Task: structure prediction
Amino acid sequence: MNHATTHDDSGIGHVSPIGMLIGVFALLIVFTVLTVAVTYVDLGEANIWIALGIAVVKGSLVALFFMHLLYDSPFNGLILVTALMFLATFIGLALMDTEAYQPRIEASNQALAIQVAQAQHAEQAVQAVTTAKEKAKSAAAFVKMTDLLQFDPKVVTIKAGQTVAWYNQSVLKHTVTADPSKAANLADVQLPDGAEPFDSDLISPKATYQRTFSVPGKYRYFCIPHEATGMVGQVVVEQGP
Result:
């Protein structure tokens, strides 16, 4: 006995026309190109909402046609589209809030970067001075040439036969000069009787200059490029033991 076989088509998914699927796919490509194109146009806060709106449309097309939600209960489709719209709204509001605080965030980041750079510069300066002092261990006195266009300290005292080391810790070039022929103001130069004039030439940043003093007395010296700003120092040489 042959038994008639019954088929229940209720479990078979809806077969969409190939032309419609290709059309939806082409539409998705168009929306993707549009999403990229919008990024090249400055519309202010509207850029966020346009991008999210396109995303909602694309998500709805995929769910309705490729996932066949269009042929399911209309209520399910309504729930999905509504959920996507609410999600886009929440994301948009969050991004707008971020944009509102972005200038303050960027200013804070810039200030932090400046502080880090200053700290690194200060650390490098300390390390450079330490290195210079190591190289000038034989010097009885150590003088720094600063960004403030000063010799620090301005006056040092040593014994005859000892050495003074000058270290240029600034970003500018300086000289250590005690030569009346090179002074714009003769009051900036003083040499004891019997002492020879001297001039270091230009000292580059992070470089060191050393000089040994044999004749006791006061040596008043200056920096040629910055003499007019008062960059003047003095070495007092006392009689040796």
Q: What stands out?
A: The chain has two domains: 15-108, 137-238. Residues 1-11 have pLDDT under 50 and may be disordered. The chain has three helices and nine strands.
